[in-house]
Amino acid sequence: FKYKDTNVRKRLPLSIRVLLESAIRKCDGFYVKQEDVDNILNWEERQNEAEIPFFPARVLLQDFTGIPAMVDLAAMRDAVAKNGIDPNLINPKCPTDLIVDHSLQIDFSKWQDTAVRNQEMELIRNKERLQFFKWCSKAFKNVTVVPPDIGSVHQVNLEYLSQVVQEIGGFVYPDTVVGTDSHTTMINGLGILGWGVGGIESEAVMLGQPVSLTLPHVVGCRLVGSISTLATSIDIVLGITKHLRQASVGGKFVEFFGPGVSQLSAADRTTIANMCPEYNATVSFFPVDDTTLKHFKQTNFTEEKFEVMERYLKAVKLFRSSDDQTEDPQYSEVIEINLASIVPCVSGPKRPQDRVPVPCMKEDFLNCLNEKVGFKGFHIPKEKQCITVPFLHEGTEYFLSHGSVVIAAVISCTNNCNPSVMLTAGLLAKKAVEAGLTVKPYIRTSLAPGSGMVTHYLNASGVLPYLSQLGFEVIGYGCATCVGNTAPLPESVVDAIKQGDLVACGVLSGNRHFEGRLCDCVRANYLASPPLVVAYAITGTVGIDFEKEPIGFNPEGKEVYLKDVWPSKEEVQDVEEHTVVASVFRELRSRMQVKVLNCFHNLDAPDALLFPWDPKSTYIRCPPFFSKLSKEMPTPVSIDNAHALLFLGDKVTTDHISPAGSIARVSAAARYLQSKRLTPREFNSYGARRGNDAVMTRGTFASIKLQNRFIGKTGPKTLHIPSGQTLDVFEAAERYQRDGVPLIILAGKEYGSGNSRDWAAKGPYLLGVRAVIAESFEKMHKNHLVGMGIAPLQFLPGQNADSLELCGKERFSISIPEEFTPQQELTVMVRCFLMFNSCAFL
Predict the structure, then answer these.
(1) What are phi and psi of 521, to 5 degrees?
(2) I need a surface site. Which of 58, 153, 229, 765 has the fewest CB within 10 A?
(3) What CA–CA distance (Å, rounded) separates 504 from 497?
(4) 3-class secondary structure per residue, 282-302
(5) What angle do CA 509, 513, 518 make, to 5 degrees?
(6) Cα 395 to Cα 398, 407, 442, 494, 666, distances in angstroms
(7) pLDDT of 564-579, one tens digit each?
(8) Which Gene3D superfamilies does the UniProt entry name for this protein (predicted)?
(9) H or E stretch including 763?
């Protein structure tokens, strides 16, 4: 490729240069054409217009979203074998890593050998799934499986899988990745371009297809100013998140530059990049600079690997010098954030974007009690706001009130890549214990580090025993509380909460905290830094002003304030320098490799080309998606006389559509599992059973927080319109399918927002849903619907179900032509009684 303008590449944002390199290297005239390369080179004129293909260097799967992808590949092998085709042709072409981390379920806390006990339960509960994973590692080429208890998917990606520069087949090129977790963007903090995709898209990439994306709008985020001495990386993260949310960066690339970037460590950057989905950007990219190189010198890179990486990045202009402003690229737009303006905050009580300055926490919570039910309100009557409910726990009387903390979790992925915040939490725990402070025993405390490295440096620094004394035992490695896998609260606590209709609280250092996700009876949940999680656990309530009120009393009855036990930045840095060193990475990597071998060595797995499906299995089932596999391309079919299965409002998340947490005992999925002779304790979670379509179909729209306008209250129920009966969503859909009635869903704005989940599209498809008519869609979920053959139809601007006077009980007919294009207008015929109305949709 030769171009007259030799400076064109220098003007491109560095993230766009990575896309350009991939396009040039993969240009074959079929998947990637000369036109695609030209479009990227002319990014300034073609952004937001041209569609380009992108071949990532690797695919990253975690088990919750990865297992359905691998189950689909296994089912695909069966389907091609039945059609007389060699099943060995079904193999990932793109290197794929599957990390088993979301299997972690907390069964024990505050016990000696807690992690060992939880691991034993995990192996018992997930044996079928782990055997399937081992079969995958043997049967499929290009698949590597990392077993549980090694680390969360993001930590493993950061510490072991990240290469920055790949050296394969005589080529040296940038390391890039797509993953089936929306927080794959964490890797952007190390200068590696990557983002989350759905399971459907990941399967396509695994099989050699490129990711198709619109050439993105790139927002340059210029960081200036000095960071406050009291602000942790979480405060920086939440501060930047708020600014970027206000800047409307949804669907765009964000690239950081400016003098403030050099103040952020590699761990800070990965923490910031991890929150990318919370402000809806596609990526949050920190180009490789001297800080990044310094980080990799401390990890597992050999001198030879390090030299190749540095020389290559500088040669192809993918290395950034933060001191030289003449190197600043041209961006679509630039926003500036002053780091000095960021103060310590928490986020909640229901959404990560609702930030609350810590000094205002008490006042804000009281305001939430008064406000009407919504994102910032619970509408508790004035006369009931001071209620106190006594209860017994292990023979001792305690009291709960509004704001009482019942869950306190320092969990993986968001913070644990950053030693400073974890060490701050550990040093705070040490000082608190030495001051005679304790945590009430009924509070569900847990510590789920992102990887063994965290445990290693917490132990090496001498703070782990103090965390344990406060109840923060290491329960294992992987996603736990954040995805609803917390241990059940004591029954006496649950009864007290229900008796007083209390707004009980959870505090966690994660990235997700939708209402009801941690526990059904915990209505207020706050994201906080690890040291603040420890602090709120000690106080036992969020209704405290740390500046004016003590967090507890020492044995002599003297008041102890947060400032008395909060470690200084100098203390934290001193400990960090003496514990988080290169030897930690090298030693831990060696130990983990041995552990992987031992773990897999003890598991039996089938040795066959085709997976031997067990009809008795409740975890792994052959899905029906390929049962009608044909060599002919199917044509679109119009929808006639459909009923609305659900009539939904705004902001229906993938959590509402396909929950990941525990399976309620009165749900359709529970009845199915009970028919298989399983007890409620053996149900596990929806996330763990994503390899079973029977469970996942029954779990579709099973969220207890689903707001269905047909019903008028929250819950996984709907109206079966022909009979007028209120049924579980699955039972209603089953009746419609028996009667041959197609289904649609009516919804409001931002349908499908939240975590990427392929079952949020697969589930509705298996329920018989043919179209979703909404005011707007989350882009990734819209792509998933298309991938499953569900039509995402958007109301015309200014229109919605209410403006068109739809009640949802009409019959809907949608004429879909054999050939159509995106954003084409279609006509939906709505029949109500004997009247017909014509409504246009986009």
Answers:
(1) -95, 5
(2) 229
(3) 7
(4) CEEECCECHHHHHHHHCCCCC
(5) 95
(6) 10, 20, 12, 16, 31
(7) 999 987 788 778 766 7
(8) 6.10.190.10, Aconitase, domain 3, Aconitase, domain 4
(9) helix 759-767
Alpha helices in 739-826 (DSSP H): 759-767, 779-787
Cβ contact 197:755 at 8 Å: no
C-alpha span between 342 and 755 (Å, rounded)? 27
Residue 291, C-beta contacts closer than 8 angstroms, at least 6 positions apart: 261, 262, 264, 265, 266, 269
Look up residue 140 and give its DSSP letter.
Answer: S
In sequence order, the 6+-apart residues with CB closer than 8 A to the CB of 736 are 643, 645, 720, 742, 743, 768
The model's pLDDT over 81-90, given as tens digits with 9 standing for 90+, comes to 998 899 999 9
How does the average pLDDT of the chain come out, rounded? 86
Stretches where the chain sits below pLDDT 70 are 1-9, 102-125, 149, 229-230, 300, 322-325, 412-418, 478-487, 511-518, 577-578, 580-601, 630-634, 756, 833-842
Query: Do 51 and 213 touch, CB atoms closer than 8 A?
Result: yes
What's the gap between Cα 728 and its chain centre? 27
Confidence (pLDDT) at 838: 42
For residue 680, count other CB atoms closer than 10 A to its CB: 12
Summarised one tens digit per residue, pLDDT across range 623-661 is 999 887 766 666 778 999 999 999 999 999 999 999 888
User: How far is the CA of 837 from the CAs of 644, 722, 800, in angstroms?
Assistant: 16, 21, 15
Rounded Cα distance between 234 and 245, Å, is 16
**Residue with token string 């529970």:** 670
pLDDT for residue 516: 52
How many angstroms separate the CA atoms of 151 and 448, rounded? 9
Which residues, listed in sequence order, are joined to residue 267 by a DSSP beta bridge?
Answer: none
Amino acid at 468: S
105 contacts 485 by C-beta, under 8 angstroms: yes
CA–CA gap between residue 628 and residue 99 (Å, rounded): 31
How distant is the alpha carbon of residue 511 from its chain centre?
8
Q: What is the token pair recorded at 49? A: 């217009």
Q: Which residue has the tokens 């009864």?
A: 495
Task: Please spell the DSSP secondary structure of 647-702, one letter per residue.
Answer: EB-S--BHHHHS--SBPPTTSHHHHHHHHTT--GGG--BTGGGTT-HHHHHHHTT-
CA distance 546 to 536: 10
DSSP, collapsed to helix, strand or coil, labels residue 353 as: coil
pTM score, whole prediction: 0.74
What is the residue-wise DSSP string for 227-246?
--TT--HHHHHHHHHHHHHH
Q: How confident is the model at residue 835, as a pLDDT?
A: 39
- Tokens matching residue 301: 């890179």
Strand ranges of the sheet holding 524-527, from the earlier edge strand across to the other edge: 355-357, 345-347, 524-527, 505-508, 405-410, 444-447
Q: Would you state the pLDDT for residue 515?
A: 56
Burial class (CB in 10 A: 0-12, 13-18, 19+), 827: exposed
Instruction: Report the DSSP beta bridge partners of residue 404.
Output: 541
Q: Say if CB 675 and CB 665 are below 8 A apart.
A: no
For residue 371, the tally of other CB atoms under 10 A from its CB is 14
